[in-house]
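Retro notes
What went well: the complex prediction finally ran end to end.
Inputs used:
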Amino acid sequence: MHLTGLRTAALATVAIVCVSQSALAQKKYDTGASDTEIKIGNIMPYSGPASAYGVIGKTEQAYFDKINAEGGINGRKIKFISYDDGYSPPKAVEQARKLVESDEVLVVFNPLGTPSNSAIQKYLNGKKVPQLFVATGATKWNDPKDFPWTMGWQPSYQSEARIYAKYLMKEKPDARIGVLYQNDDFGKDYLKGLKDGLGAKASMITAEESYETTEPSIDGHIVKLKSTGVDVFISITTPKFAAQAIKKLAEIDWHPLHIVSNVSASVGGVIKPAGFENSQGILSAAYAKDGADPQWDNDPGMKKFLDFLARNYPEGNRLDGSVVYGYGVAQTLVKVLQMCGDDLTRANVMKQAASLKDFEPDTLLPGIKINTSATDFAPIEQLQMMRFKGEKWDLFGDIISGELSN
Amino acid sequence: MSAAEEVVTEGQAVEAVPKRAMTLGTGTSLTVLVLLLVIPLLVKNFIIFQMTMLLIYGVAVLALNILTGGSGQFSLGQSAFYAVGAYTSAILMEHAGVNYALTLPIAGLICFAFGFAFGQPALRLSGVYLALATFALATAMPQLLKLGYFEHWTGGVQGLVVTKPDAPFGLPMSQDMWLYYFTLVVTVAIYVGSINLLRSRSGRAFMSIRDNEIAASSMGVNVSLYKTLAFGVSAGITGVAGGLGAIAVQFVAPDSYTITLAISLFLGMVVGGVGWLPGSFVGSAFIIFVPNIAESISKGLSGAVFGVLLFLVIFLIPHGARQIAIVGQQLAGRLRR
């Protein structure tokens, strides 16, 4: 009995030594990863003017909790550390440094906002820490040559605007376009995409109006645009203002061809508050499924999403586009970490993130796929046009790529 | 009712602080300085960065303290001066290739001129009206920075990225540590300068205006000159802080300098104790660290938790850190006996 015990112990020791040696040969870790844990950092505006987006961080946390409950990624649990920057760039720098130097995370994932990301980009690239899948649609994140540690996720504002330009040149070549845009990085980037997309025909834009997010109402701008006699109204607005615009158009009985930017295409957040009767015929483009749209109720991907909401994240609102967004981007990160296998170095995370092939997160429209390469750091580049009819969006036309090279 | 009568009937906005009570004793000051010199050698770069920000915001709060605690004028527009300083430094460094250390006095001078000019119309206003006028300045600033006309220099909505300076003469220290000591030197210089200013003739003029404008003018103090001067000095110091902030954060954008920053600085002054200069740094620590503490208590309700903490501080120690310092002094005095 005694002998057998010893023998088993000896065998076990040999076995453990062998296993750990072979493991040592294969496994590679950078700061923030170990046999049991992967530390992921994140920065979100939980407070301040953009606090509505804080939901994204909470959704991601819930999604990682679900992954951990299912056994983690190759046996490793995700530890998600998310800090508040109040949408203030200096605070974002402080929080990014805290994540990298104090919490020692493997990657900084999905920090939100163009100003905040601009502020931390140089620091993270200098430290060679991945700034992965940033939550902003600015075009500048796709720059692997100068910033090999930064990657976007959603389609860029410019590529979306190009799609509208393409559509207008084809369907309404004699249009006179009036643009209402938000006077910040989002609005300006978008306007640039629109002008670039129209190219030589940029003179089709006959009126431009900008507004500040601090303005209580944009009614004055809309009346002014109507008076210029334009017949296409492009609304480069965030949800609150997009809804105001739709209402005002109905109020003054003005019916131009109305295009709403994707950020404000949410049925629950914009269209419903503005009134379905006021929204008929509005055009937009989408890359993700709308949680409020009944046409996806039997879609297998969306079923998984709704199941996740029911089981892991009951406080999440399916009508909120940010929840759909957070789910999709968290799923993409999990996919990348799975592809990394046991080589959890920062360099390998970036390498795998740049090797996604035809990956389809559950919440993206059918046919829209994530593709990246060493020279292409723009994961989602396709969108589909849609028209509002009844109480939902009708997708029409092909999936269009807004790639900037086109 | 004439302006003079108005001043008389108005309650005193800022409690009179005798000038000796505005500073710390020599022994205490030196101890704090030694601590500030030694701590960075023992901690991580991230903490050094936070300490740098503490000093920078401390200088900005100090500037407000000179204005409010010294001359009795309110300002909710400090973020505008901070922004001008930050942009001046950033533009000079990135577009004109000026050395970072040289950009600070330039930022200070430009902000001094800006503050002095703003002080002229502000002369006609006092109390809450002045606070509102400066508030307007703070709300206007981010939009002005976005104007297409200046975009070539300011980078518009995208902001400007600033290069962080390396330690000179091949000193074996990290960028963060060098910047910390550089900031410390500037801070100490400004602190000592401010104390001397308040102890000087001009400082006495500021305080006499704060305590009673009519008495001051009848004693021969040029009230309008000294009021605008206080604005200028305060804006100039804030501008230097803004320049340092731009270098430390390595980025300037309109969204960095919203009214929230102005309110934070105001908050820092009240928490540190109005008119007590060392309190500026306590107040600065409050506005940097307490939001982090609030966040660690509850993510969704960080704003509410911060509010509760702030309320507790104001309720328990209405005179801020100065009150604690006075109690501490009295205790020490009693022990000595």
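What we learned: Chain A touches chain B through 36 residues (CB under 8 Å).
What to try next: split runs per interface for comparison.
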